[in-house]
Amino acid sequence: MTIHAGSAATSNASSSTSDPVTVLDPQAPAGPGSTLTVTVVICVYTDRRWPQIVKAVRSVLTQNVPAAQVVVVVDHNPALMARVRATFPELTVVANSGPRGLSAARNTGTGRATGDIVAFLDDDAEAEPDWLARLLPHYRDERVLAVGGHAAPAWEEERPLWLPPEFDWVVGCSFTGLPTQVAPVRNVIGCNMSFRRSVLDRTTGFDPALGRVGRTPVGCEETELCIRVRQLEPDAVVLYDPAARVRHRVTVDRGTWRYFRQRCFSEGRSKAVVARLVGSDAGLATERTYTRRTLPAGVRRGLRQVRDGDRAGLLRSGAIVAGLLVTAAGYLTARARRASHAVGEQAPRRRPGPPPVRVLAVELSEGVPDVPDTGGPDGSRYGATQALVRLHGQPLGLVDVTLPAGGLTAPALTAAIRARLSAAIDAHLRQDGLPTLDRLDPGPPGETGGPGPAGVAELAAAAATGSCPSRRPAVQYAPFVSVVVPTCGGTPLFASTLDSLSALEYPHYEIVVVDNAPHPTDTARILISRSADDPRFRYTREPRPGVAHARNRGLAEARGAFVAFADDDLLLDRGWLRALVDGFTDDDVAGVTGQVLARELDTPSQIWLEQYGGYGKGCQQRRFNRAGSTTVEVGGAHRVEPRRSLHPYLPGSYGSGANMAFRTDVLRRLGGFDPRLRSGEDIDVLLRTVLAGHTLAYEPGAMVWHTHRRELRALRRTMYQYGVGLGAVLTKCIASDPTTRRDLLRRLPRGLAYALWPGSAKNGGKQKGYPASLTALELCGLVLGPAYYAAAAARSGRSRA
């Protein structure tokens, strides 16, 4: 009969081809090939799966068509092998003779097989009684070299509502997009497949450079083998029979977002290896069709389900897009590393990241120092320096300079500062009533500034006499301020943060530390000890997890007219609180954010975070309101109107939640922080402030220093959380206000260009070598943000009910 291929598919699951193939009807009378015998191979590796192993073996032993031989291959676990032999003495039980991993174990089983057909069943799957009876008749056609069947998920608990059926391959099962009747496919699924033994012998079986090792969620070894078989024998047929069914157990841990992301990323890496081994045309042809047809159809179906009242449809649509992005990120990462070995074997040597950057602060009135290149992490040399340049305490800008061998001399750094910041220096001097400098001298106070009318000594004198306006408070009175510090008690810099808080140059404030740890920590003891000597410290607990709940607790406890928020891993400038209060010069200013600077740039991850944009927003004052934004620059103010930008829907440009303050009564009227937004609660409250008609101010003089995460894994998590937070915030805007929804949708093309175009203001700082996976993870989080928000909103509604 003639069988047409079904829909395209991907991953380890069966993948359909596109050409009709005539094969024999498996229900036809037996022919010369009806005497074929079969060996079933089950590969095992851990005692933790013992109950499932027993079920898998018994499902094979009770087949309607019995197997001539059952081989159990134990992957480098002598104790497990002894247990299997004692329990099933009638089976052929052997140890994996190759390297650790599923591919080598399957090859070992093939080597011990005696049947004409070798069928493979996973150790956590159970075959239906007619499994072999469905697979074997297809081999009456000599062109059929492999036959696979359907793998139905057997969930340990309920199926997650967010998991789209198009991605059931993530949990090792068949998925939407596969043929619904017998059809030729590109490859079979690993937990339910069979091959002619002669084919496995001719092709040397599965490639050990692919396949799962232990619990590492990777695969594609059967994909690569089926493609290789078709390349060696172009007339060969690989069939999929949905009636040949197994039940594949899916444990609770596989129904999590974490596993979903890991599995998709690993799948992308494996696909890159397959494409390298067999060519991208053969290796990715089905995936392209799957991406163009199956996934868009799944997204549309999820959105229709939302319209019909199934809110989880939005989660499933978001998961489809996120899964595609994460898989693509894994593929691109592997391609960039020229991966050609197994995921799980020793990875190719990584390209070195950017060299460490020495971070320093330069106060011009105190002179400019030499910058040595020694003393880097692990004895390395610094390749560059990032200098925060201040004059009379006021930040003028950041100057990045490459360090030559031996370091940078003070005159060389001075020349670089003068070249980059001359306009800002001169503007500050004019504001002080001082003449501008013809030349900036690097020497210490007391030395002359050369031929210019003013030098370092004059700069120091202006600061000492108080003639510098930046040293005089903009607000002459000192209103009482509550500083809220949420903490989980595990931050190594917590004590340093408290020290810098107690040393602020501001007369009237309290420090409210909110303990948000799930279990008792030393936070209470530390605060009790400090409050005995310094009554400004107060301690309170918030049992509900999440920084939004902790900040809301601090807001409720605050006694000040203004409430400021600082993270528990910061070092604060002594003038931080004064600068924040000075930002409330106008009555319409409801909130003020400050500058967050890198305390160190010793690792590639820390440098990449700064290239991404960091937490600081520059050294120019800004004002934001519903009508637009204003940046105070040398020579005047620059105004940006909303119609020419994405304003006000770029809340990340307003500042960072690690360094912000509000009028207490205004923040309470706004409802505080929304705990449904995960990592987006700070940008949400800043955006709501602007949308409510208030003004936000950015004061660069309110400076704190943050120790960025040193590890790449932590940075990946941060980028993903940033995306989730922004996606959740925008979803909230769309869902809560029709006017905002229309405004956002009109700006969608501009927003996509901002997010994706490499030369946009968002991406322009990313230099060569910036990991593409970080961008992909952020975009993945952005796509998943609506799903997270919908789930959190549903939980919040249930808890209120």
UniProtKB/TrEMBL annotation:
InterPro entries: Glyco_trans_2-like, Glycosyltransf_2, Nucleotide-diphossugar_trans
Biased composition (Low complexity): 1-18
Cross-referenced SUPFAM superfamilies: Nucleotide-diphospho-sugar transferases
Pfam families: Glycos_transf_2
MF annotations from Gene Ontology: transferase activity
Region (Disordered), start-end ranges: 1-31, 434-454
Superkingdom assignment: Bacteria
Keywords: Transferase
Glycosyltransferase 2-like domain: residues covered: 39-202, 482-634
PANTHER family given in the database record: GLYCOSYLTRANSFERASE, GLYCOSYLTRANSFERASE 2-LIKE DOMAIN-CONTAINING PROTEIN
Protein name: Glycosyl transferase family 2
Record lineage: Bacteria, Bacillati, Actinomycetota, Actinomycetes, Micromonosporales
